[in-house]
Design brief:
By secondary structure, this protein is α/β, with parallel strands linked by helices. The protein contains nine helices and six strands; from the N terminus they run E-E-H-E-H-E-H-E-H-E-H-H-H-H-H.
Amino acid sequence: MRNQDGPKRGASILIVEDDPRQIRLYLKALRGHRLTCVANASTALVWLAGQMPDLILLDHVLAGGERGADFLPRLKELAAHVPVIIISGTLDLRGQLQALQGPQAAHYVIEKPVDLDELEATVQTALDECGLAETIRALESLERSEQIEANEPSRRFVERLARQHEILKRLRGNAAKPNISQLARDFSVSRKTILRDLHDLIQRGQLAADIMPANDGPQENHA
């Protein structure tokens, strides 16, 4: 297992790949993100038991004779909200369709040889619009259909999750410390709420602890 940390404001991406040449390509294309590389899906399952990435990049043909797509259901059981991009030069059309269908499906399949521009664009879309963002949209839709009142705890939870996702998108790739007061104004909440949001994102591993302004550490965030 190798950790390849780019700027700390990038997303956490788990790369399941055993080919050093492919790994070098991914390190080049995704250098702005925090990358962890493992050689097979079995190791990825162990890693996921203790940590949660923002995205999984899964090769199909792996070390030890493993097939990445075969492990997709088990990976999704551990990380149901994490988008998965399968990379393959061997999956036929039927195999690709199977990987993209059903409740434990991948979001994308990219064929080898990998076009780096396509990879970068797909990763960005997956981070911004898939996974957690889909979960939020589904919960918001359910709230509307059930006519849940604005002051009910379930709606407050979804609102907090949606706000945190938007904050995360703003801060990824931004080297500057966040302006807590500006974020509070933008989202019409208190500074303490924004600090709590940042603390939650740090606790989930979606942001590094150094994102906190010097005088606004997580210890002040109890409201």
